[in-house]
Please model this.
Amino acid sequence: MDQRVWAFLAGMMTTLVVAALLWLFGWFRASRVEVAGLPTPPAQATAASLPTPSPSPTTREVAEPPSGYRLAGVAENAGQLYAVVEQPNGQHGIFRQGEEVPGLGTVVSVGGEKAVFQTSSGKLTLWVAPAPTPTRTPTTPRPTPTRREPPARSPAAAGSTPR
Model:
């Protein structure tokens, strides 16, 4: 191509880039939020100034969860949260809010890394916990395989015959 064509293309590209930058700058400037007119937020309450809720019979927490139950995880599908509970027999069940977990209670809420259950003795909160690591069992010693040398080949088997 001719040098004049290249010069024209370079000038057009430069003009387009400058125009785009000016438009972008104007758009950002026009959409800026007025900060000075916002009211100041109210002061935050400190922990010392908040009243301590007294436990009631409906919010009694269970001290110890039943043996063998573990919250293996929390799952989500279409905005619905599910508690993945490992039961004492080793099976996993997936339960949503309001469902009954056999031997444990009813799922009250699921969120984050915890699930709250309503048991016969009060509310129980289970947090996601890793599965216990299996204890290593001693293995029986296996004999070390010995290397066996291949049998010596006769000259006839190798393809050469003595003369």
User: Anything to note?
Assistant: Residues 61-127 form a domain with the SH3 type barrels. fold (CATH 2.30.30.830). Confidence is low (pLDDT under 50) at residues 55-59.
